[in-house]
From TrEMBL:
The lineage of its organism: Bacteria, Pseudomonadati, Pseudomonadota, Alphaproteobacteria, Hyphomicrobiales. This is 5-formyltetrahydrofolate cyclo-ligase. One of its GO terms (molecular function) is 5-formyltetrahydrofolate cyclo-ligase activity. It comes from the Bacteria. Keywords: Ligase. It is an enzyme of class 6 (ligase). GO terms for cellular component: cytoplasm. Its EC number is 6.3.3.2. InterPro entries: FTHF_cligase (IPR002698), FTHF_cligase-like_sf (IPR024185), NagB/RpiA_transferase-like (IPR037171).
Amino acid sequence: MSSQTSNYAEIADHKSSVRERVWTELRKVAVADSRFHFDFGEFIADFEGGEAAVERLLDNPYYRDARLIFITPDNCLDRLRLQALKDGKLVLMTTYSIKRGFWLLDPKKIAPEIYLYASTLDGMERVGEHMTLADIQTKLPNVDYMVTGTGAINLEGVRFGKGHGFFDAEWGMLYQLGKISVETPCAAVVHDCQVLSEKLNPDVYDTVVDVIFTPTRAINVSGPHKPTCGIIWDRLDQHMFDTIPPLQELKAMGL
């Protein structure tokens, strides 16, 4: 085994250990998912106090100043997508596991009485507009704000998600399209038990956030070091490439 391969394995083992430890505590406050129950390797859970965490995000200038927000399809962010529509903001999101791509929710094109439905994973595919990467590149303004849930995060803004790398892939694709940069603010919405004071060892493509919102506090990260590599094709899991059409589209675009 090469030293580089060994380093990758050590990082993966470290991430897995951190997740398992945090998930034990998260189970005490998480809201079970109808499909995955408490399998946190398959979904990002909503949690007790989720409303308060989102309220903190809504009161932050990053949100107030944003016109177009990318919001991940996490359970803890349903209410944020709904409020963003009510506030007249464009919402860009992906389907679960990105397999059916990116979708745009434009509140001007959706009847207010179905905003709640539109903010859900099932509803957004029925009332939203499917966006190819070419559409995102040519038809949309730059993304003003990136918001995600996660599995574990530390005070330096280093986040470890479910282990699939979906948000890292979303960041990488939008970065390569030129729709975000290291200056684009990024936030995580989590329960307090998911916030760690310890050092976390990120990989080169791991996303780092500017601010963390929990039910009890907003944590500003000083000088977050964000990835600038886009998609690293020789590190990309082959199964992800084979099952996520936007990755195939990006590869074909030659960016």
